[in-house]
Amino acid sequence: MPDIIQLLPDHVANQIAAGEVVQRPASVVKELLENAIDAGATHIKLVVKDAGKTLIQVIDDGSGMSDTDARLSFERHATSKIKSAEDLFNLHTKGFRGEALASIAAIAHVELKTKTESAEIGTRIVIEGSKVVEQEAVVSPKGTTISVKNLFYNIPARRNFLKSNPVETRHIIDEFHRVALAHPQVQFHMIHNGSDVFNLPVSNPRQRITRIFGSKANEKLVPVSEETEIVKVDGFVVKPEYAKKSRGEQFFFVNHRFIKSPYLHHAVNSAFEGLIKEGTYPGYFLFLEIDPKSIDINIHPTKTEIKFDDEHSIYAMLRATIKHSLGQFSISPVLDFNKDSSFDTPYEYSKKSPTNPTIEVDKTFNPFKDSATTGLKGMGKQPYNPKKDPHWESLYVGMKDLTKEGTVEGVQFESQEVTGSFFESSETEQGQTTFQIQNKYIVSSIKSGIMVIHQNLAHQRILYEGILRNMTVQEAVSQQLLFPLEFDYTPDEIGLLTTVKEPLEHTGFVFDALEGEKVTISGVAAGISESTVKEILDALLSDLKEEVPDAGFSQNDLLAKSLAKSMAIKSGTALRPEEQEHLIHQLFACKEPSVSPNNKKTLITMEASDFDKKFM
């Protein structure tokens, strides 16, 4: 049998490694920004074109590289961060594997310009698909400039799997946030398609959060700080009243490295237990400092997951620290046994002896003294006799005429209606053809048996088709608000709402202002109450962040699905018989009555034979 195992060529091995490290343009941004941080840069500039598909450029003023180091940096497993296996457990830098640049160079056109402070001239290297095309000496400022062009140019299948430009841009901004938040001492500047997105000067953590998430974020933050032998915790949690239904604004940093940890996330949720509504998530920006020897970063290719030696203690510390901060700043209710200073004895009375209070009583006071002539004398001892009262006839003036006219029969008396039923008002009425089960399902009889309709999913289908129709015809009915509604959002969220402003207006929303960090709405779609507008916009933003489609039908489709889901009748809502019938009529007037916008069943049918089988 011939030998079948062989070594892979370097360029194939690099492409395989790139599949682990470089999943999308945002992965390249993360690796290049972290390299700039490791180089000691104080000013980092990120330039992106076409969501990173055309260009990703990072310019820094770090230490730079020599001619030899610049060439070696693109070799696999070439790194200056570690020299032995023991160094893996004493890491103070972002990168250490030596795979990032090699993986990026295998699937893109890369140009590197770098120069150290002591060198007179710099080095320029051009690599295409792991092959060095050019290397020359150039005039360059201190630091490194690396440009990644035409990502996945030699792997068209991977390029086809990339999402639309808005989605990829969203991921790039998320990675930029993570690096910028971890390093407030570094100045960051981001440009996308020639427009400034962020310009973050050197600041402290609180100012950096405010710069990224808007000026209103400052009043939402509660500081958290605790230092123990195991871990040092600093940062902020968001006040419970600002908890969101989406998982945004949740950041864990361990030794200035962003991580994802469901276990620690559960610790934060546990600290907020009883303070936030079910189904909402608290926001937090928590920075943990731990001895590098007690954590293992080398368990995931993207280094976003780490392993703790004593994660149970960290869980307990984190939970207790957040609970203490919420109590300390009067966010959560606490039991305070400290005495109030207002109850202290004043200084001038401290040496005086207390005296008993005196009570004066008027012994001659008689409350019945003046009531002897009105028939009240002796009340309680004998019944009142009206004929002994000289004015008794005045009590019956007009009664004789009232009885003669016979109008007493027309007098209506208030009394509780006796229905003779133990059921609520939603009880089945005579002639009713629909029934509601658990305020969730509507049951209607049909010729072959019964039909069960899910009221929430059915209403989603009705609203979905109606919203799409309004977007197409552009003649939606809008109800004007007496007082305009104002909401505060982050600059990123304002940008997302701007992209869907026109289709929202076609559904009935009227925007007076949509800029900066404020949204002003003076009109909403018919059928929407003022109290639910904020909830609908929040749900829409959450859906847009998950999947931002290109302009056109796909955008309208996503918008209609999101609005229909937010506006639909919720499970648990009691409906009157006429409302149940109206819902059924509307459902069967739809083009696709049997499925919801998300392709779930809206109704099922059960024949009489199905019931017969149950009783066999």
Characterization of the model:
With 616 residues, this protein is of the alpha+beta class. The protein has three domains: 10-200, Heat Shock Protein 90; 212-328, Ribosomal Protein S5, domain 2 (2-Layer Sandwich), CATH 3.30.230.10; 441-604, MutL, C-terminal domain, regulatory subdomain (Ribosomal Protein S8, Chain: A, domain 1, 2-Layer Sandwich), CATH 3.30.1370.100. Helices cover 31% and strands 22% of the residues. The protein is built from 17 helices and 22 strands. It has helices spanning 10-21, 25-38, 67-72, 100-106, 156-160, 165-182, 205-213, 262-271, 311-328, 399-405, 455-473, 491-499, 501-507, 533-546, 553-567, 577-587, 608-614, and strands at residues 43-49, 55-60, 109-115, 122-128, 131-138, 143-149, 187-192, 195-200, 221-227, 231-238, 250-254, 257-259, 284-290, 295-296, 307-308, 434-437, 441-446, 449-454, 478-488, 510-515, 518-525, 603-607. Strands 5-4-3-6-2-1-7-8 form an eight-stranded mixed β-sheet. It has a five-stranded mixed β-sheet with strand order 9-10-13-11-12. Helix 6 runs antiparallel to helix 7 (205-213), helix 8 runs parallel beside helix 9 and helix 14 (533-546) crosses helix 15 (553-567). The longest helix has 19 residues, at 455-473. The radius of gyration is 37 Å and the shape is extended. Residues 375-381 and 419-430 have low confidence and may be disordered.
